[in-house]
Amino acid sequence: AQINRSRTSFFIGAQGTDVDGQPLRGTTGFVNTRLYTASLRTSLKNKWNLHLRGAIDRRNFNAQNFYTTFVPDTAREKVNSTWQQASLNKSTDKVEYSFLIGARQLTDEYQFRPGASANNNRTQLLNTDIRQIRKWNWQQMKWTTGVQWFNKVIRSNDRGNHTHQHLGFYSNWMHQPLKGLFLTEGIRLDWDQSYQWSLVPQLNVAYILNNTTIRGSIGKGIRDADFTERYNNYNKTLVTSGRIGNPNLNAEKSMNIEMGIDLFTDKSVQVHSTVFRRNQADMIDWVLTKFENMPRQSNLIATGSYALASNVASVNTTGVEVDINGSHRLGPKLNLRWNSGLTWVNAVAADDISSIYLSNYANVIWNSNFQLSHERGMISISTLFKNRAEQKINSLAVGVTKSFGLVNARADVYMWKRRGTLYMQAENLFNVAYADFLGARMPGRWLMFGVRVEVENKKRN
Fold it and tell me: Could you give the C-alpha distances from 8 to 22, 102, 261, 329, 455, in angstroms and in order?
């Protein structure tokens, strides 16, 4: 529902899903979700605008083999979170100011099987961002400067109690030195509680010639380990198997390069193609590790099977992305929109090790969507195909599927001048049996029916 006044607008929404899932090994699949959102936007004096947003998200679901490949896994999980954000901004012809503060609170309760002690994690995030953008007409120049700070907190019976802070200063310069040539030079200086100071440069180039854009970018990247990678199963008295965190992890460092071309034809068809390369050092992954090689053994057993969060020495990733989309008018009230994208990726690690993510990524992904729309409704069909190395786990748990293809469909009927929508949606239309990661059995064919109603109140003061 939405209420509009001359200087203020207010929106509130709610969404719920209850699904009785397919039978699983020793348990039954299910998903129950509730989402409530609200936002308020108002115009203040001197061109200032205030925007407030908030959300409540409740999720309860079966998590069998989401995080393990063990046969006794009949896990359930509850994830509840709240989110708040306030922003104050002002925009003129020469300058823009933005002040943002956001917070998120999350509780996560995970129970591996009935009778087992549940993992209880409570996390909090506070993020602030202050930004200024200066604009000049000459060479379409824009200079952005800003500072960002965030603080993360976890209270957990599994991972312990920890706090993590991060501070970043950033600046980038956008300009057009020649006709059709656009440059963006950026630099960021980060201080992190774990890796201290780091300089992160970035360069983006784009050249527009008629209906063609040639683009490229090069930049450095850095990512610190999260609480799970550092402390998973670290606070428990006894761990007989599973993933073990590593507090001594180094931050991931990468150099990212990409080049691409965009073609805009005269027949409402666009073609986008990109070649990319990412060279990573100290990439963080879960590596199968023998008990005698574990850095901390005090709460482990010699016969356990463990995956230790580790820094993989070097990983080089090469890939190609191609995306084609089009929009066509078939009649006075009938339109067709479509897109199709293909991604090919190849990752090579310098270390000959068995790690979870490297052995499980999809090297080929193809997706497409076709949407036929009319003033009375809409019909869409989407497809997804993935291919990867096959993984056999055991005779009872589901192995990761080498390749699979899915088809989804949806039909909408508009009512009350498009204020209401009656819809039917079919996921996994042909009931394909597959596992996309680790060994979690993905849903077969399932149907959704629903009604969406929009209520708007307009009034001029």
Answer: 46, 21, 42, 36, 16
The reported pTM is 0.85
End-to-end CA distance of the chain: 20
Q: Are 270 and 327 in contact (CB under 8 A)?
A: no
Could you tell me whether strands 2-4 and 456-458 are parallel, antiparallel, or unpaired per DSSP bridges? parallel
Query: How many residues are given for the chain?
Result: 461
C-alpha–C-alpha distance, residues 434 and 437, integer Å:
9
pLDDT per residue as tens digits for the range 236-272: 999 998 899 999 999 999 999 999 999 998 789 999 9
